[in-house]
Amino acid sequence: MADNLPLLTGIKHLAFDLYGTLLISKAGGSYSIHEREFTLRNHLAEYNYSQLPIFPLVTHLENIIAQDHAHSRKNGIDFPEVEIRHIWPRFFDSLKLTPPTELERFIIEYENLTNPVSPAPGSLEILTHPLTRAFVSNAQFYTPLILTQLELPAPNITLYSYQAGHAKPGRHLFDALAKSIPPSETLYIGNDRLKDIAPAHHCGFRTALYAGDQNAFRPYAHRTDLPQPDVLITSLDQIHQILGERLLA
Question: Using CA atoms, how far apart are residues 73 and 56, in angstroms rounded to an integer?
């Protein structure tokens, strides 16, 4: 997909996805289940867990998450999200193991091993821009900690899936954002046409599809049912261009 950079007018607010947009994963989508299994077993070994079962532990963890999702769907949540700090104790309990004393540290270390992230080029500059108002992201408790570690400032409005129990591509987080800032005056930037662009569009937001990280870029070109973004950008500094000189002043 080529850059599509028409001039947008009437934009007074910027809102962003995080993973794949402002945060670039070094693993991308290439970290296989076998690699994750190896990493998880090594991580457990570092915490002195031994005599682990031979069945795939990563699959076992994913099954616990799937059970949580199924329970939430029965309660009417179409696109549920887990609170990962509630999942890991169930994982250990199911293996008849005592969770580590510093459970959050264990979780953060595992996340850093399997999904290490770094700031996207231009992320700090755009986050300090006065129009930046919000994050709307599938995230967990460690996401704000990662932002602090990377010295990336968070805007006043942060809508994270783990806090709401709702994930994208559901509209719940965008409906919540629409209560704080006018959608017609807000440009939402994300890397995923299904999870970012579609729900934001259906809630009335202007949209920019970010293609700056090819590992995370999800255009869903075959999905003719999905709305097209207002703009397609390949770098965050192009936001200045599509909003005109007013943004550069």
Answer: 26
| Ordered strands of the 13-16 beta sheet | 157-160, 132-137, 13-16, 186-190, 206-210, 231-233
Residue 134, judged by CB atoms within 10 A of its CB (0-12, 13-18, 19+), counts as buried
H-only helix segments in the chain: 33-46, 57-74, 84-94, 103-114, 123-127, 142-149, 161-164, 172-178, 198-202, 238-243
Q: For the beta carbon of residue 89, count every other beta carbon within 10 angstroms.
A: 12
Q: Does the pLDDT of residue 248 top 50, yes or no?
A: no
The predicted pLDDT at position 32 comes to 83
For residues 48-62, average pLDDT: 96
Contact present, 173 and 164 (Cβ < 8 Å): yes
User: CA torsion sign, 3 to 203 to 200 to 125?
Assistant: positive
Assign 3-class secondary structure to 210-238: ECCCCCCCECCCCCCCCCCCCEEECCCCH
Please give the radius of gyration of the chain, using alpha carbons only, rounded to the nearest integer: 19
14-23, 26-35, 174-183: least confident range: 26-35
C-alpha span between 135 and 179 (Å, rounded): 14
